[in-house]
Amino acid sequence: MQVFIISVKHDEDGYRHYLNTLQNGFKLSYIKNFVDANTYQKLDNQYGNRRIYAWGSLPGERNKITWNQMEINDKVLIYRYKQYEYSANVIFKIVSSKLAERLWGKTSDGQTWKYMYFLGNLKNISYPYNIVNDLFNYKTDYSPHGFTKVNHKTVQFVIRKYGSIDNALNSLSHFN
Q1: pLDDT of 7-22, one tens digit each?
Q2: How far apart are CA 99 and CA 102, in angstroms?
Q3: How confident is the model at residue 96 (pLDDT cuts 50, 70, 90)?
Q4: Angle at 6 between CA 5 and CA 10, to 5 degrees
Q5: Among 16, 58, 74, 81, which residue carries the largest CB count within 10 Å?
Q6: What distance in Å separates the CA atoms of residue 96 and residue 172, rounded to the nearest whole number?
Q7: Which domains occur in the chain, in start order?
């Protein structure tokens, strides 16, 4: 298992994207005309009538490398303004400018967040950043930016200590 952190940009667009595709999610019907039949079927099998949660990353060498390392069932922590808001698992990945544009539009220079991942088991954790930073051996005042992968050795240490990433996160529940 790997752990990834996505940091929601602290601006109006970032917050709107966060609300629409992470906090509130969206129905499959909203994207039906923006995915092929195979992708639609996979998402329907995963979500059915439930809300879909997704995020994406802009093209860029670092984001592409990080996205390529991401595997199904990996843990994703969603960070927004000094707090880890949610934990989730990756259930599907796709590269799609068309779908990304449907969900988030384009940047001022015409790029989309096309390196997309769909999330399941979304759990509201609302932990202060310094507490989670301590768990993953980051400096207390570390503030993640963009799309990052937690060091593999650190993740393995946490798993050995707590049995799983979920157990480790649950051990922090008294902080929220």
Answers
A1: 988 778 888 899 999 9
A2: 5
A3: very high
A4: 135
A5: 74
A6: 36
A7: 3-175 (3.10.590)
